[in-house]
Amino acid sequence: MGRQKNKWLLWVLSGALLCLAFAAGLPAKDADLVAGKRLFRSAEISETGLMCWHCHADFNEKKTPDSYVRPGHPMYNVGHKSKYRRWDGAPLQTIDDAIASCMIRWMTKRKPASYDGEPAQKHHVRQLVAYLQSEELSPEQKSKPLEPIVDDKMPSDRMLSLGDASFGGVVFRQSCGICHKTEGTGPAPSLIRNGYSRYQIAKKVRGLDEKGLNGLRMPLFSKDRLSDRQLLNVVAYVYQL
Ligand code: HEC
Ligand code: HEC
């Protein structure tokens, strides 16, 4: 009988503790983290098919690379910086602003005649912040702001004609194929028989082509994500598709 009573007491106590924890907002934060982790790789919050995961690694790219080198920098330890960078290099105060600006640029419902979409939903931003600032993704609680790469000099036409298409195929699978599926099922158009010149392809990759498609402009690859040598080779590959 005494045992039974103790059991009841334990139940009541743990129930009370759970309520307390709820009141303190702990499980709410955990729920945000779980939701944010899912949203990072989900097309659910995207009207364009582009997800965070297409452009940013959400793991330690140096230690455990997957087969992709994405246009955006990895999100490992991104959670607690003193300053953030928008896609065009503009400085931003908070990680919330950085996430919202990516969503407006590439993911939310497109507005006519611009490359900006509708504002991002506040709860999506909050959930993604919880994930990016979590112990799992930002264990160091601190890291240096990104330095913008200002060098946008294009290789000459002669250099562009020297690329090697067979090396370029490897670069393509690493850096382009995540978005440009051959069957056209990705968030970006298939590049089979694209009809672009080498120069036009290179300009697109370096973000110097002003025109986009359906209210979207491709994210650029700066030289620390794709070297000039890799650019020459991938251009040779895409040119002969
Ligand atoms: C189409 C590509 C693309 C998509 C999609 C995208 N981003 Fe970005 N994002 C960028 C680029 C480019 C930058 C500029 C800094 C860089 O080069 O990483 C950036 C910057 C950021 C930054 C600031 C990084 C820093 O250290 O200053 C954060 C945080 C971020 N993005 C999070 C997200 C999240 C979360 C999503 C999904 C909701 C997302 N991004 C979707 C390309 C993208
Ligand atoms: C994060 C997704 C993403 C990645 C990675 C990506 N692209 Fe794109 N690309 C796009 C989108 C979206 C468009 C359509 C908008 C535009 O033309 O700017 C596009 C358009 C293009 C076009 C013009 C196609 C047309 O039919 O108008 C070319 C050429 C191109 N990309 C080449 C490349 C190459 C080469 C790479 C790899 C170095 C690459 N892209 C990586 C998203 C991506």
Describe this structure as you would to a colleague.
This protein is an all-alpha fold and 241 residues long. The protein folds into 2 domains: 25-132, Cytochrome Bc1 Complex, Chain D, domain 2 (Orthogonal Bundle), CATH 1.10.760; 157-239, Cytochrome Bc1 Complex, Chain D, domain 2 (Orthogonal Bundle), CATH 1.10.760. The protein is 41% helix and 2% strand. It contains 9 helices and 2 strands. Strands 1-2 form a two-stranded antiparallel ribbon. Helix 2 crosses helix 5, helix 4 (95-106) crosses helix 5 and helix 8 packs across helix 9. The protein is elongated and about 85 Å long. The protein starts with a helix and ends with a helix. The mean pLDDT is 90. One heme C binds next to helix 3, helix 8 and helix 9. One heme C binds at residues 50, 52, 54-56, 71-73, 78, 81, 84-85, 87, 95, 98-99, 102-103, 106, 128, 146, 219.
